[in-house]
Each structure stands twice: as C-alpha cells, then as structure tokens.
TrEMBL record:
Family: Belongs to the dTDP-4-dehydrorhamnose reductase family.
Catalytic activity entry: dTDP-beta-L-rhamnose + NADP(+) = dTDP-4-dehydro-beta-L-rhamnose + NADPH + H(+)
Sequence intervals crossing the membrane: none
Keywords: NADP, Oxidoreductase
Protein name: dTDP-4-dehydrorhamnose reductase
Species this protein is from: Cobetia amphilecti
Catalytic activity, EC: 1.1.1.133
Biological process annotations from GO: dTDP-rhamnose biosynthetic process
Name of one Pfam family that matches: RmlD_sub_bind
Length: 294
C-alpha cells in the first residue's frame, strides 16, 4: 500500500514515517507541503492521502485556520479527481464547547468561532463529495519530535526554569503520536482488505485529565528521572489557570466505534508518556539528546 503523507514535519507525520519504516507492506511518500494537486497523486501512485491535524485551532489566528481549511479542500479536489481515499486528522478543539459526557463520532462539532466553522464546512464537503474518507478526530497529541509534539517544548521550558501555565478546568485525553500512527496504518490495511468502513472515528488516550494535571505529571516524571541520573533539577514552576466559569470544559472523545470496527484500543497515555520519558533519559545519558526531540 502506497501512502502520500502531507506536512511531513508535523509530529504525526514523523510518527507515521517511523511506523511505516518498520513494515515491508507499506511505501510512504512524505512531502513537506500541505497542498497537492491531482498530478502529484498520480505521480506518487498513492493509494491513500493523509493530512495531519491542525493543532489547537481554537488558540490560533483565524487566518491560519482558514488557510488550513483551504489547503484541505485543495487536497480534497485532487482526491476526487483521482478517486483516491483521503484521511484527514482533526483536533479535538473543534468541539469548542466540549460536552458533559462522551463526545460520540456521529456528533458533528458546532463551534461558534467563525474560523472553526470554516473547518467544519470543509468536513461537510469531504463527507458529501468523497465517500472513501476517514475523518479521525484526535485528542491533544504528544510525541518525541516534530511540530506540535508538545513534550519537547514543555521539557525545554521546564529545564530552562520557565513558568508553565496550564488550565485546570479543561479536561481532555492526551494522545500518543506513535499510538495514532499505528492505529491509522492498521485501519488503512483493513480498508484495503475490503472493510469498507469509511466515515468519522475518534482516537484518544485513556483517562481524562486536566491540562494542568498532565503537565504536572510530566514535570514530576522529568524531575524523578533526572535525579535518578544524579542531576540537580530546578524545574520551572507550574501555574494553574481557570478558563471557564463554573463547570469545567470536557473534551472526552468516545472511541468505541474505532474499537468495534477496527479492533483499535486506546493506548493509556501514562504508559506512552513513561516510554517516551525513558527514551529521552536514555538519550540524555548517552549524550545524544537534542533540544527539539525527546
């Protein structure tokens, strides 16, 4: 199976590259651009086109969010012309107002923000115009390297002694980049074998947690591991923010459909985080750690 991956420098793109590199049944062509045409798809002979998510759209400039939607629609047009399936990954922030319970796959986000509504319109076009599509909504991603990997920047700030601010009233499910990459490959392999299960799916880590609590876990693990190496650590302090008056904002994705359809289990984010921190410590101990990776 030949995959055409856009925006290769994104953390999920790098996760897919790592995962594909361990398999003989995949050929992955990664390009830096977030826009392609039909000729690009034909030249690569791609069986599937994959677009990584635009991270934190609710916190980004409207012009950047609009540009992402336009880029995805250009890719959509190329996929329609060539009859190529499209996988579009979407950040959980599209559920602008969250939900009291679990957010199901059949619940289409209905944000108030104009730029976010533009992205929703792009999703509506994909559903209406390209039957063979996967819209995969993800929890906040964390990974070892790449743009929007979260952990490298967080660790760098903590080690620099900077204060890290995080919301204590936003509940979410941190999601491992590597777990998403493996899940996407498994889903696409089943589709290629005739599953025919196109549509929207949710994929996130287990155990809902506040942003502040997640950052606190990272800080504690960082200090514990560095002290284990005999290093004196003065990690930056944390500050809890209250962003919502009254009830906390919950973005907890219901991932039952991806389990029932493809047998994909949610990965516990604590285990994935511990694995990545162990890898980072091993690199640091060997002197090979880089500021932009863990």
């Amino acid at each position: 199976m030949k995959l055409l991956l856009l925006d290769a420098g994104h953390c999920l793109g790098l996760g897919l590259i790592r995962a594909a590199g361990t398999r003989a049944d995949l050929e992955l062509n990664a390009v830096e651009s977030d826009r392609i045409g039909a000729d690009d798809i034909r030249a690569s002979q791609a069986d599937v086109v994959i677009v990584p998510p635009f991270a934190r759209p609710a916190d980004s400039a409207p012009a950047e969010v609009m540009a992402h939607a336009e880029a995805v629609e250009q890719v959509l047009a190329a996929c329609i012309e060539t009859g190529t399936p499209l996988v579009w990954c979407v950040a959980d922030q599209m559920f602008e107002q969250g939900g009291e319970g679990l957010l199901d796959e059949d619940e289409v986000p209905s944000p108030i923000d104009t730029a976010l509504r533009r992205v929703i319109a792009t999703g509506d076009r994909i559903r209406a115009e390209l039957p063979n599509h996967l819209i995969v909504r993800l929890g906040p991603l964390f990974g070892p390297e790449g743009r929007d990997a979260w952990l490298p920047t967080l660790i760098e700030r903590l080690l620099a002694g900077e204060e890290v601010r995080a919301a204590e009233d936003v509940i979410l499910c941190p999601t491992s980049v590597d777990a998403v990459a493996m899940a996407l490959i498994g889903m696409l392999q089943q589709q290629r074998c005739g599953a025919g299960a196109w549509g929207a799916y949710h994929l996130a880590g287990t155990e809902p947690i506040s942003t502040y609590a997640f950052v606190s876990v990272v800080r504690t693990q960082l200090i514990t591991r560095l002290e284990g190496l005999g290093e004196t650590v003065a990690a930056g302090p944390l500050k809890a923010l209250t962003l919502n008056a009254g009830t906390p904002l919950r973005r907890v994705l219901n991932c039952r459909r991806v389990l029932d359809t493809f047998g994909v289990h949610q990965k516990p984010w604590r285990l994935e985080l511990s694995r990545l921190m162990d890898d980072w410590i091993a690199q640091r101990a060997s002197g090979s750690s880089r500021p932009d990776s863990i």
